[in-house]
Amino acid sequence: MRAPNERAEAGFTLIELLVVIVILGILAAVVVFSVRGINDKGQSSACKTDKSTIQTAEEAYFANGSHNAY
Fold first, then answer.
1. CA distance 70 to 65
2. Which of 36, 46, 62, 69 is the most exposed place for a label (fewest CB within 10 A)?
């Protein structure tokens, strides 16, 4: 049995909680910057696809010869 003046170790100290919060903040920042990079790559890929689609449509229009119909 413990003596009445001994303090029981229960829970976490304030320093331990602050360290965990700081680590979680750092991990969250890393994830946010990673997702931002993925989003930028996706937009770049979408622009390239749109450009290719427009070029194909333009080539089909001129190959059809319907621009001289009137």
1. 11
2. 69
pLDDT at 5: 60
Is the separation of the CB atoms in 42 and 48 below 8 Å?
A: no
Distance, in Å, from the CA atom of 1 to the CA atom of 70, rounded to the nearest integer, reads 103
- Average pLDDT along the chain: 83
Better pLDDT: 2 or 14: 14
CA 54 – CA 63 distance, rounded (Å) = 14
At position 6, the amino acid (one-letter code) is E
Q: Which spans in the chain are helix H?
A: 14-64
Contact call for residues 67 and 61 (beta carbons, < 8 A): yes
Residue 39 phi, psi (nearest 5): -65, -40
Kindly state the tokens that stand for 40: 């930028």
